[in-house]
Amino acid sequence: MGGAAGVVEYVLRRLVLIVPTIVVISIIVFFMLYLTPGDPAIIYLGDTPATPERLAQIRHAMGLDRSLLIQYLAYIRRVARGDLGRSLRTTASVLGEIEYRAPSSAELAVAAFAVTLVLGIGLGVVAALWRSTWIDVGAMLVALLGVSMPIFWLGLMLIFIFSLELGWFPATGFGGWQRLVLPAVTLGLLTSATLARLARSSVLEILWQPYIRTARSKGLAERRVVSRHVMRNVVILLITVAGLQLGELRSGAVITETVFARPGIGKLLVDAILNKDFPVVQGVVLLIALMYTVINLLVDVSYAYIDPRIRFE
Amino acid sequence: MMVGGLLLLVMVAGAVAAPVLVRYDPIALNPTDRMLPPEARHLLGTDEFGRDVLTRILFGGRISLRTGAVAVSLAIAIGVPMGLLSGFYGGLVDRGVMRLVDIMLTFPGILLALVIVAILGPSLFNAMLAVGISASPTYARVIRAAVLTAKPLTYVEAARAIGCRNDRIVLLHILPNVVAPIIVLGTLGVAGAILAGAALSFLGLGAQPPQPEWGALLSEGRNFLLDAWWIATFPGLAIMVTVLAINLLGDGLRDLLDPQLR
């Protein structure tokens, strides 16, 4: 069983497995409100005082007086129609708030991913090719520092140096490439550190392969050995591995958007948690979890495409 | 490993001996000494309320290190039994546990911790709980893999042959042989937990003012970067040095105890 048929079968198998995952995610998100200590109606009202009659009205309007199963099914029906509810703070549609902020988050994700790939693969390849020299030690020390550095501290230090002291880039906001540089470098630098360590291991593994020895013994210049034989095998693998970094990127973006006051989905989530704006929290968490389920599937499929052994597991 | 261990020892010693090393109160306000730069009386300067930054960092180290230790202990307490049961019994138990692990892992990085804090409310204790629970799936997966490697080995077969019950086999024979990955993951996990806990406090979802937790110190200092850069800079350096030390120690332990984890 090989080629396209094998990949299609693998994708179908994974799609079937995704369905229970999505159902459980929707149940967790739905039940978030009920897991919170206190009356859900009071939580929905927030700081607004209410009489017992008003609370009873709220409970009826929200369907809280119906069985949990009926409430869950109603929630799923609403979500399927694209209705994620309304923000308690702004009364705006949750989906509308997410759509408004999506471009900022997408822009940051793409820019940071580019920084991750270039820096991570570059640093790792350089370290591997100059193994056991000061270049290797230096590159891996930089990577280790990157993994150890708090992302919010790096962001603040870049703001201090490049915005406040040198005035090269704006510190906060969204719009224009200048406002993207510091957040993208902050987010990309830290995720590239993990990728650099992985890249170094992968390149070292490839350098020991028999076909590399063959290429060298044929008299090929080292530069051609690296560009033609090493890099082709490394880059495809590492771009796929870098797909796994998207989770770290999304996680880091929540903090980066807060540091640089970018109006993104991550900042929306943090503000909603601080304001106990549950419809927004539920909507954003559901969206991010579903997005990552799909991204993980795409990453696994690309792995299966590259390595046929995975399809037969 | 030695460098990491020594660095970590210095950081822990500083946190433990904080009441002896410094003479200032980490919480008491001192308006006359507001936003002083580093000088002889205040080696790392003072903050917007006149509080000594070095004092707050040393006392904050207690909170951050405790956050790391508690979160990792919780992650081990949840994740290791899951991995042991899943790997040893296999079948439906394995599928059920791994499905739960996969679902937890669909929430990337800090997101699961954010969901838990959203439910429980912002506080230092809830942040520790959130970080611990969100880290547990990794332990479950790694321990499951280690158990699957150990299960077919001769000593397990011999234990079965002499009539050992399953719980005895798991606890007395398999668990001691999968301790190495627990130690390595746990050590590296403390670093991750300190970073995650500091991140939650920075966002206002973990330690609440006036607790001198390192992430909270950074959050306070971000408003004064231009006028008092030291308020945000030194707590961040403290986090970085501590996490670097733990990572160096953890990397060394991994090379020593369990190179397969690399």
How is this structure best described in words?
The complex is a heterodimer of chains A (313) and B (262). Chain A has 313 residues and is mainly α. Chain A contains 12 helices and no strands. Chain A is flat and about 85 Å long. Chain B is an all-alpha fold. Chain B has helices spanning 2-16, 18-21, 53-89, 91-105, 111-120, 124-150, 154-161, 166-174, 179-202, 214-221, 230-257. Chain B is elongated. The mean pLDDT of chain B is 87. The A-B interface holds A 20-21, 24-25, 28, 32, 35-37, 144-145, 147-153, 156-157, 159-160, 164, 201, 246-248, 250-252, 254-255, 258-259, 269-270, 273-274, 278, 281, 285, 288-289, 292-293, 296 and B 99, 102-103, 106-111, 114-115, 117-122, 191, 195, 198-199, 202-205, 215, 218, 221-222, 225-226, 229, 232-233, 235-237, 239-240, 243-244, 247-248, 262.
| Backbone CA Rg of chain A | 24 Å
Count of alpha/pi helices of chain B: 11
Return the structural class of chain B: mainly alpha
Determine Rg of chain B (CA atoms, Å): 22 Å
Helicity level of chain B: over 70%
Q: What is the makeup of the main sheet of chain A?
A: none
Principal-axes shape call of chain A: flat
**How far apart, in Å, are the first and last alpha carbons of chain B?**
15 Å
Structural class of chain A: mainly alpha
**Most extensive chain-chain interface:** A-B, 46 and 44 residues
Shape of chain B: elongated
Report the mean per-residue pLDDT of chain B as an integer.
87
Give the helix tally of chain A. Answer: 12
Kindly report the oligomeric state of this protein.
heterodimer
